[in-house]
Amino acid sequence: MRERRNSAQGRESRELILETALEVIGRRGYGATSLRDIAGEVGMTQAGMLHHFGTKENLLVEVLRERDAATREALAEQAGAEPPSVRVARRNAESPALVHLYTNLQVAASSPDHPARAFFEERQQSVHAVVAADVRARQDAGEMPAGIDADMTATVLLALSDGLQLQQGVDPTIDIAAVLGWTWERLTEAGRPG
After folding, report:
1. Each residue's pLDDT tens digit, 64-108
2. CA distance linking residue 89 with residue 180, whole number of Å
3. Average model confidence (pLDDT) for the chain?
4. C or N: which end of the chain has fewer Cβ atoms within 10 Å?
């Protein structure tokens, strides 16, 4: 019985840490947030907080997983004609600090031995599959030309999105959703007669 209670308390602590980290990074920015800041807001020591995650990188990966889960849930609730990649970009614009976390961690994960490498590999495959499926669905509906390679289009759109996120770190006036929307419009125009 005591073991179950400790396990439940551990899950609650972990969830509290993730919620707090997401909120603090979103409010203060990735670069301006330390583990000490998060631990202080949770009411734990850094060591106590890391007991649940092992490393700072593992905590940050879990923060991104939480953000992705919240985004998937929001997209499911607000289905519409606009491509999911554009809706995600619009949602991300509300949390530039989390985009900054994502881009910084993604760059660091380009090293084969980085702890976040597996997360980004899995995420890239998953997101690619969603975008490619969206392209195919639009082709089936006659909204996009059948001759466009859905997988290649997904690769280009994801590269565009990731590149724009990096550029936005230098120039915050870049409207990623507008650029992606413009790109989707050009793709769909290619399938229209005349």
Report:
1. 898 898 888 888 887 778 898 999 999 899 888 888 889 989 999
2. 8
3. 87
4. C
As given in the structure block, the two tokens for residue 29 are 């920015």
CB atoms within 10 A of CB 98: 20
**Cβ atoms of residues 27 and 94 within 8 Å:** no
Q: Are 158 and 84 in contact (CB under 8 A)?
A: no
pLDDT of residue 134: 92
Which tokens sit at 161? 């999105």
pLDDT bracket for residue 3 (50, 70, 90): low
Angle subtended at Cα 175 by Cα 174 and Cα 180, rounded to the nearest 5 degrees: 120
Q: Answer whether 83's CB lies under 8 Å from 184's CB.
A: yes
CA atoms of 105 and 150, how far apart (whole Å): 28
- Find the Cα–Cα–Cα–Cα dihedral 99, 114, 52, 28, rounded to 10°: -30
Q: Which residue bears the tokens 């490619």?
A: 132
